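Task: sequence design from structure.
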């Protein structure tokens, strides 16, 4: 047996790999090894979560952003973006439509847009919870003060997605001229401490990113133990400073998803829209490599294309019901089942018992 086979077996049996082992694996893995890895990840997912796939209705409610991340199409310096904001009433309308379609988690995502004051967001959380007490609310609105996170949690927000983006400090600094590496991590710790189910995660194939950097991403996640881990390929956007760089590949992303399943086995792992954009079967392949969450977009069709983190994002002309139909069919065709519930993480369910 090759060294890589031994490492894959070790990861499968023990859910543990050291940083140097991950680096070796990433640099030596062959296509045949990859199939073995995906299979182990699938078995691990089945052992923890069965064949159920959880759905989240994604509402991209504002594309205004005060930050200037080099990779992101919504960065403040991109003057080409036609900016939009949904009003609280419009967001509630999206929730109503999502609820009708059967979703029991609403993900409210935006650029960092302080137009939505703490008070507005608190009132919105309360209203969503009043209307849909059995649904979970996930926020993905970037960095705010700890007190804000606290009051939003008290008002009914259950979960918070904030990718750490990259655990390599120097790379993080280059990509985020308006943000601090330490602050991102402090936000993630604060969110966890407050009691949110937390989603961290990173991009694969960032310019300058090394195998050691990706190994560091996994080691950071092993320590943080988030409830969810979002992993997607970097896709260049032409109106950004990284527009002419190479993007990440579907293969490399799938390897990272599968390794995340082996090393943080109890976490929820989305098959990301970015992976679906890069490869027509990207999300199905992710489901077969350990992912167990899909996020159908329920943003109004009129503004969807303006939420362009990267270009050619799929589903831009679709209506929410199209996405529901398409995604449910893909899940079934891949051999899995849609779970109708809120889909909490196992870590959370253990804690709340
Ligand atoms: N403002 C929020 C939401 C960010 S958008 C926050 O700070 O958390 C959601 C995710 O899209 C980001 O965390 C980033 O990982 C990803 N993203 C942004 N630009 C991208 C690109 N060009 N290619 C792939 N993913 C990208």
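Answer:
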């Amino acid at each position: 047996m090759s060294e890589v086979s031994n490492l894959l077996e070790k990861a499968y049996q023990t859910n543990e790999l050291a940083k140097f082992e991950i680096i070796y694996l990433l640099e030596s893995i062959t296509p045949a090894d990859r199939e073995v890895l995906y299979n182990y990840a699938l078995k691990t997912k089945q052992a923890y979560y069965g064949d159920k796939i959880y759905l989240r209705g994604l509402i991209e409610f504002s594309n205004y952003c005060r930050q200037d991340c080099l990779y992101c199409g919504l960065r403040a310096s991109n003057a080409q973006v036609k900016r939009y904001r949904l009003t609280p009433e419009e967001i509630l309308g999206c929730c109503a439509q999502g609820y009708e379609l059967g979703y029991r988690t609403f993900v409210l995502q935006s650029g960092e847009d302080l137009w939505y004051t703490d008070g507005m967001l608190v009132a919105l959380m309360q209203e969503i919870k009043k209307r849909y007490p059995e649904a979970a609310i996930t926020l993905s609105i970037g960095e705010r003060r700890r007190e804000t996170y606290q009051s939003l949690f008290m008002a009914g927000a259950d979960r918070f997605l904030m990718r750490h983006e990259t655990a390599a400090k120097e790379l993080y600094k280059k990509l985020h001229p308006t943000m601090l590496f330490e602050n991102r991590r402090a936000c993630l710790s604060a969110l966890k401490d407050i009691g949110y189910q937390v989603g961290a995660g990173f991009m694969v194939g960032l310019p300058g990113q090394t195998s050691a950097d990706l190994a560091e991403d996994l080691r950071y996640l092993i320590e943080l133990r988030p409830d969810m881990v979002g992993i997607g390929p970097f896709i260049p956007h032409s109106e950004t400073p990284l527009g002419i760089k190479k993007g990440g590949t579907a293969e490399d992303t799938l390897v990272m998803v599968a390794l995340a399943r082996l090393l943080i086995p109890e976490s929820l792992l989305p098959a990301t829209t970015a992976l679906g954009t890069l490869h027509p079967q990207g999300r199905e392949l992710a489901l077969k490599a350990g992912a167990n969450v899909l996020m159908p977009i329920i943003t109004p069709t009129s503004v969807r294309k303006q939420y362009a983190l990267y270009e050619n994002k799929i589903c831009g002309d679709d209506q929410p019901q199209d996405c529901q139909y398409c995604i449910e069919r893909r899940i079934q065709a891949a051999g899995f089942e849609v779970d109708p519930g809120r889909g909490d993480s196992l870590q959370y369910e253990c804690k709340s018992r």
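The radius of gyration is 19 Å.
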